[in-house]
Amino acid sequence: MVRVVVTGMGAVTPIGNNLADMWKNIRTYRHGIRLATKVNPDDYRTSMAAEVKGFDPGAVMDKREAKRMDLYAQYAVAAADEAFKMSGFEINSENAFDTGVIVGSGSGGYTAMEDNVRRMQERGPNKVEPLFHIKTPVNMAAANIAMRFGLKGDSMSVSSACASGSHSIGEAFMKISQGQLTACLAGGAEATLNDSSFSGFSVLKAMSAQSDPGKASRPFDRERDGFVPAEGAGILMLESLESAQARGAEIYAEITGYGATTDAHHVTAPLPDGRAAGTAMKKAMRMGGITAEAVSYINAHGTSTPANDSSETEAIKYALGEAAYSTPVSSTKSYFGHMFGAAGSTEAIVCIQALREGFIPPTLNLQNPDPECDLDYVPLTGRGQPLEYALSNSMGFGGHNSSLLIKWWNG
């Protein structure tokens, strides 16, 4: 198999609209959860949200480009622009068809969908905007990125709910490792902080009812009561090791394993015993050729919902055995809430930064550990230590599980 490395990263998140700002806020323990402003917080069980702040699409695209994109696609293009520039990769007639883009989303153009349904109801069936079917599909983030950079290889989207971003990276990794692509922009994007999304999750009682932003997202805490909805994008530039070395590119990490499974159990609830998610981790480790003892850190899916956190604890135990009790685990959703289809790719970026700097981000707000969540969840304060391998876990409604194995790059 061809070895696959990371040569660029880009992020648009509730704690920073670029990689540097996001990581600085993680290192200084600053979360991005606030009172919601994109909906009326008084209307819902949940008043908190982790919104992207101060995003200016004009910084990376002209008004005509921005107008044809839903917000989720704008986030994706901005994150891809940062990752592509960071990589220093250049598209030409010889490599264009060997360079792809796989960017997923749980919902696609949800904002444009809601806006146009309201417009149709208020003004009639022939008054939706002409760009309706250009802005709403899940594939349009990938399509706009491909057009922006002239990427003529595989261009597609993975839509597997909250595992979309992680699955996209995993599928891009597989295509490069099998020689189908030389390089690929991969990740996820989401922008669903609107009334239809809030109302749906509110009646499910899946979101936190806390009014204190410091207590709203608290994975693995016994008082946790739901996730905090969020938005943004995380994009990686993946490339074959041979290609990266041939052009003298800086390498930030290596993707060495990928595992995917399905619970086949329930539309929202995970398997309580965690075996399906645990098997995804086992597959990633097996592909990477490592034992459980070699895992230095796990970035958990860790949504702060009662069912997810306890089942993921069981999944980690199933995957790692006794090594689970000595492996640091944390959930950075305590920083930026649940970014849905962008969660897994953004958390993969966190893992890469953690490996590079030898720093494990903490699980913020973890004041009262749940006895059923009895692993080392790195509460409140980060931890500096040498790291070699990290697992990044993602799980989505419908039972989708994905795990990425990422290795520190030491040349």
Automatic annotation (TrEMBL):
<dbReference type="InterPro" id="IPR018201">
    <property type="entry name" value="Ketoacyl_synth_AS"/>
</dbReference>
<comment type="pathway">
    <text>Lipid metabolism; fatty acid biosynthesis.</text>
</comment>
<dbReference type="InterPro" id="IPR000794">
    <property type="entry name" value="Beta-ketoacyl_synthase"/>
</dbReference>
<keyword id="KW-0276">Fatty acid metabolism</keyword>
<dbReference type="InterPro" id="IPR020841">
    <property type="entry name" value="PKS_Beta-ketoAc_synthase_dom"/>
</dbReference>
<dbReference type="Pfam" id="PF00109">
    <property type="entry name" value="ketoacyl-synt"/>
</dbReference>
<keyword id="KW-0275">Fatty acid biosynthesis</keyword>
<protein>
    <recommendedName>
        <fullName>3-oxoacyl-[acyl-carrier-protein] synthase 2</fullName>
        <ecNumber>2.3.1.179</ecNumber>
    </recommendedName>
</protein>
<comment type="similarity">
    <text>Belongs to the thiolase-like superfamily. Beta-ketoacyl-ACP synthases family.</text>
</comment>
<dbReference type="InterPro" id="IPR017568">
    <property type="entry name" value="3-oxoacyl-ACP_synth-2"/>
</dbReference>
<dbReference type="InterPro" id="IPR014031">
    <property type="entry name" value="Ketoacyl_synth_C"/>
</dbReference>
<keyword id="KW-0808">Transferase</keyword>
<keyword id="KW-0012">Acyltransferase</keyword>
<dbReference type="InterPro" id="IPR020615">
    <property type="entry name" value="Thiolase_acyl_enz_int_AS"/>
</dbReference>
<comment type="function">
    <text>Involved in the type II fatty acid elongation cycle. Catalyzes the elongation of a wide range of acyl-ACP by the addition of two carbons from malonyl-ACP to an acyl acceptor. Can efficiently catalyze the conversion of palmitoleoyl-ACP (cis-hexadec-9-enoyl-ACP) to cis-vaccenoyl-ACP (cis-octadec-11-enoyl-ACP), an essential step in the thermal regulation of fatty acid composition.</text>
</comment>
<dbReference type="Pfam" id="PF02801">
    <property type="entry name" value="Ketoacyl-synt_C"/>
</dbReference>
<feature type="domain" description="Ketosynthase family 3 (KS3)">
    <location>
        <begin position="1"/>
        <end position="408"/>
    </location>
</feature>
<dbReference type="InterPro" id="IPR016039">
    <property type="entry name" value="Thiolase-like"/>
</dbReference>
<keyword id="KW-0443">Lipid metabolism</keyword>
<dbReference type="GO" id="GO:0004315">
    <property type="term" value="F:3-oxoacyl-[acyl-carrier-protein] synthase activity"/>
</dbReference>
<dbReference type="InterPro" id="IPR014030">
    <property type="entry name" value="Ketoacyl_synth_N"/>
</dbReference>
<keyword id="KW-0444">Lipid biosynthesis</keyword>
